[in-house]
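Subject: for your reference before the review

Hello V.,

The reviewers asked for a structural picture of the protein, and I figured it would be easier to keep everything in one thread rather than splitting it across files. Below is the amino acid sequence we used in the manuscript, unchanged from the supplementary table.
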Amino acid sequence: MEFYHISVLLEETIAALAIRPDGIYVDGTAGGGGHSSRIAQQLTTGRLIALDKDPDAVAAATARLAPYGERAMVLQRDFADMAQVLEELGIPAVDGILLDLGVSSHQLDTPERGFSYQHDAPLDMRMSQKGLSAYDLVNTMEEKGLAEIIRRYGEEKFSARIAARIVEARRQGPVETTGQLAQIVKEAIPAAARREGGHPAKRTFQALRIAVNDELDNLSRCLDTAFDCLAPGGRFAVITFHSLEDRITKQAFAGYCRGCTCPPDFPVCVCGKKPRARLVTRKPVEASAQELEENNRSRSARLRVIERLEG
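And here is what came back from the structure prediction:
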């Protein structure tokens, strides 16, 4: 199956990055190359480094960016390692960084990738296609640990019931498919709750995907280290799709934009700290009515952007 992904908030993101033709940019989540190709189109003597840990995405982005020659490079790497990648490439600073944290349409719609409760397929959910899978977590983790993952990463109020039902089901044999898991979750949730908020397995599947791919820790690592790779005036754009990653991004960006940390009752500043960045987007940018009509998966997208200050 051809790798495909509809890039959300595409025009808004490209505008917010304020791309310079001679600048150096990093797309930490290349996916199908949608955002990357738009960045590369605006470069003349500049350079784009596109990263993705999914080998399918790397192959698709490489093909899509091939017309841009040396202006665009695609590497199979995790965006959490962005600072290390740039150091290896001998690039001291960049003019823009983009992270699109959404799961691609290809990953969701390819049954054998095991991301979606809409298809009955082997449990997997690994973006890198290596390491521990959702199958491993569901079938080997103790009940308490499973409940904590589902509660923390899925914000699921019935996490304890779901974990207990999973453990009960696997006593009869391993939970092998997305269809099995979705049915187990459905049976664990009270009937009245099943009629609210979309598919009853949505939050559990999100939680397992986040845990399998260590998404939140990787995001925090990237936000902590990639900012220092920005040149003065460089911009950092992040597109989030659920409250957990949006909260992490918002707090990290607020920290870079915060100056003095002295107690409010101090008459004068003694810490000497100055803001390192400014907010480009005071509020998160959301999809337009037209984009929502064309791509329903953009409904939860939020774009936040900051710009590094001088000094």
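For the response letter, the relevant points are probably these. The first strand starts at residue 24 and ends at 27. The first helix runs from residue 10 to 17.

Happy to draft the paragraph if you're swamped.

O.
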